[in-house]
Amino acid sequence: MAVIEARGLSKAYGGKPAVVNLSFSVQPGSVTGFLGPNGSGKSTTMRLMLGLDNGAGVTTFDGTTFRDLTTPMRQVGALLEAKPFHPTRKARNHLRMLAAANNIPDSRVDVVLD
Question: What is the pLDDT of residue 80?
């Protein structure tokens, strides 16, 4: 069974299509990314997947939409157009703060970064 299943993702801005009927699945253990030039729909696709944009289609994570996940930060990781949370804070400390706010152990931050 796919851990991520996207079906029919579509979005247009001012009549110009950004993502058109995109469907894909990601199998357990896969590493998946979106590659393309600026304006090709990478960020829009991620926003559609997370329900942050009002386009068409549906994405499930282990069979559940992002909106319906009980602990989304523990189940799905996504980084969209990140700006510094605090200009002098190191990435490890930033992740530790996010982990603490979501009941994720500090040790998980070390595993992810090492």
Answer: 66
Residue 3: DSSP 8-state: S
Residues 56 and 102 in one domain: no
Task: Give the pair of three-digit tokens for residue 97.
Answer: 């703060």
CB 75 within 8 A of CB 69: yes
Instruction: Let me know whether 15 and 40 are in one domain.
Output: yes
Strand order in the sheet with 56-61: 16-26, 4-13, 56-61
Say how many domains are in the chain: 2
Report helix, strand or coil for 66: helix
Range of the domain at 16: 1-79
H-helix or E-strand spanning residue 56: strand 56-61
Examine the pLDDT at 11 and tell me if it is beyond 90. yes
Q: What is the structure's pLDDT at 83?
A: 67
> What pLDDT score does 13 carry?
93
